[in-house]
Specification:
Layout (H helix, E strand, L loop, with lengths): L1 E5 L13 H6 L3 E4 L17 H14 L6 E6 L2 H11 L4 E7 L20 E2 L16 H9 L4 E2 H5 L15 E5 L4 H10 L5 H4 L4 E5 L6 H4 L1 H12 L2
Parallel strand pairs: 1-2, 1-3, 3-4, 4-7, 7-8
Antiparallel strand pairs: 5-6
Helix pairs in contact: 2-3
GO molecular function, one term: catalytic activity
Protein name: Pimeloyl-ACP methyl ester carboxylesterase
Pfam family, one: Abhydrolase_6
């Protein structure tokens, strides 16, 4: 299976480096994506929009030869990107794996109130609560910070746009619950909570626990790889 790995905010394709060995050992072909504007701290991010990031994921799907179905893996804010890409190419996506994230509904943004004149959104550990940082040792945090790239402002404040074609809801999906437990997520679904409203619309999904903070690709990479491999076995 071809697996397209999409990092969340502030990260490039190398965020998946320690997850890749588990996937390739299981016989899969991996395609880590570095999104537009995220290749260097010196890149010009003033003209990068959310549609450019979604488009990069769609291009990665189209680049897989033979028109074969692929698996999309998205972390954090890229849950919305892989979901939107599946909306654009529902016939090409065999499964979606959401890593501590989930699908984002039409019209929703990560932060619609992010200032319109802000070109970039840099990583700041002080913005995160302790639960988000579980497992992030000082060494890991220093490493991530040293290679972090400011997020283009447009990708923070702009809303996702989806089509009226709901074939994306038939795509089997796996939610890797890390910062928030699977038990809590299932409870929110049962309550009809808006946080998981789009996930609840899916016709086939599972929630798998991987207790750690928000960045399991750094804190528990081998375990995350095994969960992805298991998800692909169905």
């Amino acid at each position: 299976m071809d697996i397209i790995l999409v990092p969340g905010f502030w990260l490039d394709g190398s965020a998946w480096d320690e997850v890749v060995p588990s996937l390739t050992a299981a016989g899969h072909t991996v395609h880590p994506v570095t999104l537009p504007g995220m290749g260097s701290v010196d890149a010009d991010r003033s003209g990068v929009h959310l549609a450019d990031h979604v488009g990069a994921v769609v291009e990665a799907i189209d680049a897989v030869r033979g028109g074969v179905p692929v698996t999309l893996v998205g972390h954090s804010a890229s849950g919305g990107l892989v979901y939107a890409a599946s909306d654009a190419r529902p016939e090409r996506v065999a499964r979606i794996v959401y890593v501590d994230t989930g699908p984002v509904a039409d019209g929703q943004a990560v932060n619609a109130d992010f200032p319109a004149d802000a070109v970039e959104y840099p990583l700041d550990w002080d913005e995160f609560e302790a639960d988000s940082l579980r497992g992030m040792t000082d060494e890991i945090r220093a490493d991530v910070m040293s290679r972090s790239v400011p997020q283009p402002g447009g990708t923070v404040r702009e809303p996702h746009r989806l089509s009226d074609d709901d074939r994306r809801l038939d795509i089997p999906s796996t939610v890797v619950a890390s910062e928030m437990s699977g038990e809590v997520l299932r409870s929110l679904v049962a309550q009809g909570h808006p946080f998981v409203a789009e996930l609840a619309r899916h016709r086939s999904y599972e929630i798998v626990d991987l207790p750690t903070g928000h960045w399991p690709m750094f804190t528990r990479p081998a375990d995350l790889g095994e969960i992805i491999v298991a998800a692909l076995r169905g």
